[in-house]
Protein 1
Amino acid sequence: MQTTSFQQALSLARAGAKPDVAWLVPLLACADADAPELYRTADTVRAAAIGDGVYLRGLIEFSNICRKDCAYCGLRRDNRGAERYRLTPDQIVECTREAESLGYGTVVLQSGEDPWFTAERMADIIRRIKAETKVAITLSIGERPEADYRLWREAGADRYLLRIETTDPAIFAAIHPDDDLEERKQCLYTLKKLGYQLGSGVMAGLPGQTPEILSRDVIWLHELGAEMIGVGPFIPHPATPLKAAKGGTVEQTLRLVAVLRLVFPHAHIPATTAMGSLDPKGREKALMAGANIVMPNVTPTTVRPQYEIYPGKICTGDDARHCRGCIGHRIEAIGRTVASGPGHVVRKK
Ligand code: SF4
């Protein structure tokens, strides 16, 4: 079989070729010496497509209670050592007001799959936020029936994030004992049909993952038409079945961020907190390899350390105002600007 070189693959990416394993793998598995060119190319594509602005999304982690038992996650229901919390609807709305006062045009409401937040309770929260603030709302609260997604969309939710984590059936089954890959995909198709701005994503460095598998993930996300794509390194949590697994790396994740930018010039791609947790400059590196979003935390610091999907998470003790200042300086230090407004997805005509 004829193999594609790194330079040939990069040319195909620059030309906007349809994503294909044959040219995605040489980029995802490129040599360290080639990686800076990959990152620079992705950065150039990002600048040309969507400019230098970095959107800040205020992240509200409103409940760490979860009915599921994902093998990589510190919030899994079988982790009896996790101290659980749930913010009240009033507290969630208050966090949203604080996010707006800090200039964030979007809040991301994220939680474990907590059944206390029934469809109607969530809809009330969404309606209150929409009545009391001007922020866009992204939901990141897992798999739900179509009727729930529909109710929340009608209540005013703008976007939904549901990471597929991997499209490889064997890896998906190994890490998601409660889930079915086809059902997860169906949730994403439903969200798209309902008109949400659609976010998904994958984890880099999962046990058994190969560049070929990651390539197929990228192709699937492209077929899905994902508009926001979150990727972070897998970081093993000591209270999970994967505690002894080898984690993902910053370099592996940066290659994936860069490849995603080449395939999705207009998508919103976050520089994830997980990157900043593995490397003090991890978020800046991601921003310079194609990313354009940062999600500063506005969860009350009294509970923030308890939202521990992975260990060593940064920014758990800093109040929201401090986080705003810190992230603004980091963005300006790499020659970028903080963007204003809701930062809705850019849809090509
Ligand atoms: S990844 Fe999400 S659904 Fe899975 S255990 Fe963690 S919080 Fe729950």
Protein 2
Amino acid sequence: MKKYVSILAVTVLLAGCDWNVLQGKNGNSTSNGEQPASQADQSSGQKPSDPDLTLEAAHFNEIVEVKGKKEIANPDNMLVLVNKIYGLPGDYEPEDLVRPKVAFAFGDQDIEKSYLRKEAANALEQMFQAAAKDGIQLYASSGYRSYGRQQALFENEIVQAGEEKASEVVAIPGNSEHQTGLAMDITSESVQFALSEEFGDMEEGQWLKNNAHLYGFILRYPKGKENITGFSYEPWHFRYVGKKASEVIFKHNWTLEEYFDHVSKM
Ligand SMILES: [Zn+2]
């Protein structure tokens, strides 16, 4: 009898464990790229993990609180998650910015917005070459943007549209993905080189939507996911995340926020 009771106690204890794990997983879905270490340990101990959904710890945001704001302490991470919640340090500038050899909407001018981080620039060149082979002529429009430049844009928008409206249209300095040097706005002659929603309906926008993941890019602000990304639909804005993540994100039709909801640390 004594033996029976102790087996029962162990069973109850295990059931309690599983219940806690489930509670933890469901209760901590935070769309943020951060992950409590304990949660990662629990999920990896539970079942063999899907290689698509495991990531090195270095690819998760490390967040520090600076003046009440959540600031990213590892901004060089290729999978850095920058949005309205997580911002970059004001003095962050990538060290490996280069000018990709692609056509630009503004011609050959050597200006800040033509730059991208090296790995993203190489991938952009490959993507533009592949598009050209399919008869699609793409033009890069805006890549890296410094904190100072974002500040100038934001202040200009406040003058134009007022403070409340400004933060809906222009990212607050530090919270623009363009400061990572991993995002490029892309356009075409068919929309007069504008960054407009109609680009998404053009063959150039369609080609990018269907093929960008093959080169490590994702459509960062898709239609219908505005409440998750915090941004309006932007068919022109592509973000480099590397091929492993871009394939998974494309396959599941996720945003970068949703991707981080599903992956766990290796
Ligand atoms: Zn953009």
Protein 3
Amino acid sequence: MPWDPHQYLRFADHRLRPGLELMARIPEISPRSIVDLGCGTGSLTHLLAHRFPDANVVGLDNSQDMLDQTESDSIEWRCENIGAWHPESQMDLIYSNAALHWLVDHDQLFPRLLESLSPGGVLAVQMPNNWREPTHTIPAAILAQPDWTDEVRHILPRDRVQSPVHYQRWLAAADATDLWETTYYQLLPSADRHPVLEWVKGSLLRPVLALLDEDPQALDRFLRACEHEYERAYPRESDGSVVLPFRRLFIVAMKLNG
Ligand SMILES: C[S@@+](CC[C@H](N)C(=O)[O-])C[C@H]1O[C@@H](n2cnc3c(N)ncnc32)[C@H](O)[C@@H]1O
């Protein structure tokens, strides 16, 4: 059966859709070795294995909880930190969807990933790029206020994803690069609290929630302050839903020579 991402897209959600759109831009190569960095529960790893049935496929993630949800005896699942990952031999395809924004020092990470490719190899990456949007600047501004402890003030991840121009430079050794951004207008349904607050509670705010878990009063103060600002930045529709613009950066780089 030929690869048909549009068929998969019919069933895709906000999280999977960019991963499929990234996969669709991988050129027609015949990789023997593939790694999916930050594979999570492995949905996209399965699709990579399906598209490239002759390849040895590794799914790598540092969360055993995520890896415990994976299925397949034909894929090798490894619990490892991407930051410390150095393949034993060069890879034909390095794929990563919505994971590398959790890592620091992209100026070193991206050239290193490029070096890990075999001749003809492809690096394909997608990362959310919303660090300067109200979703991120609002909690950062609230936590920057002096009444929080130093630990709380520094708990949010700092701006890690840079402009596409930086990635173009860091991947200058590639023979071909393809970089683009897409903004998805995600309809978030009405919820008890502001829908954007519910959205970021599942991702960006997770470290804050964990840290303030023992201090319900402080947590409540923080969430109320965020919610107040989100109401202004992302007004609700008449049914309580909110349209959240969500920008993602896509990078495909190919190395022709060793
Ligand atoms: C948003 S999920 C994406 C999962 C999958 N790629 C997908 O698109 O469905 C991010 C994943 O990156 C993993 N991750 C984050 N930092 C990591 C690191 N330093 N090393 C390995 N995995 C990491 C997390 O455990 C999580 O499973």
